[in-house]
Amino acid sequence: MAGYPQWHTASEQGPRARNADAVSAYAAAGAPGITFALADGVGDDPGAGRAAQTAAAAAARTPVADGPVTAILNAQQALRKLGGTGDAVLVVAMPFTGGYRIAWVGDARAYGWDGSMIRKLTEDHTMAEYFRTRRQPYSPRMEHVVTTSVRTTTAPEIGTTEVVGGGLLLTSDGVHKVLPPATIDGILADPSRAAATLVSTAIAMGGHDNATALFVEPPEVDVAAIVTEPFPTAA
C-alpha cells in the first residue's frame, strides 16, 4: 500500500498440537500510522490460541495516542472479558516521529534492524533472565518460565523502550530461541522473504514451538506522519 512501510509476517505450527501464536496490524482511520502486535499463547491448548488472538487484536486496536503500555492493559481487559484461564505473552510497537514505541510482557521480543545487524530492544521476562542478570545459576527450563504475562501483569511490570530509524522485527520465542543473531541478520538481507524464511528456518533447525515473525522494513517516509485509512487486521 503506497505511503505505508512494507511489512511481512509468517507463522508455522511446528511440532505443537496447534499454533497458539497471533499477529495483528491495525491502523484506524485518521490515526498516525500502524500499530503492530505479536502474541504467543501460554501453553498448547485452544485457550492459549484464543488468548493470543484476543490479546493481539485488542492491543493493535488501541489508539496510538494512548501508547503501547495502555495497549497491553487493553489486551488484559479483553482476556478477562473472554473468561477462562487462557494467557499469552505480548509485544506491541506503535509509531511515533522517526520510530516506534514498544511495550512487552513475557518473552516475545522486538529487534531493531539497521540494514546489516539486528539489535535486541526488549529483555525477556523469564526466570532465567531474572537469575542471569543477578549472576545466579539457572536451569535451561527457566528460559521458558515467564515472570509476566498479559493476564497477570501490572502496569509497572510492563517493559518499555523505543527505537528510532531502521526496520523493526517482532518474534515469538520459537524463532529467537532457536536462531542465532548472525542467522537472523543474514535472513533479513532479503526483506520481502524475511518473515517466512525466519519461521521456516527455525522449524528446520529443530524448533519445538510455534514460530512467528513480523518484519517491518525501514520506512521511506515518516511512519508517524501518515494519515491512515481503514486497514484490515492480519492474524
From TrEMBL:
- Its name, as the record gives it, is Protein phosphatase
Domain named PPM-type phosphatase: which ranges?
6-218
EC code: 3.1.3.16
Return one GO MF term.
protein serine/threonine phosphatase activity
Which keywords does this chain's UniProt record carry?
A: Hydrolase
Respond yes or no to whether keyword Amino-acid biosynthesis is given for this record.
no
Keyword check for rRNA-binding: no
Q: Which Gene3D superfamilies match?
A: PPM-type phosphatase domain
> What is the species of this protein?
Amycolatopsis jiangsuensis
Q: Which PROSITE patterns match?
A: PPM_2
What domain of life is recorded for the organism? Bacteria
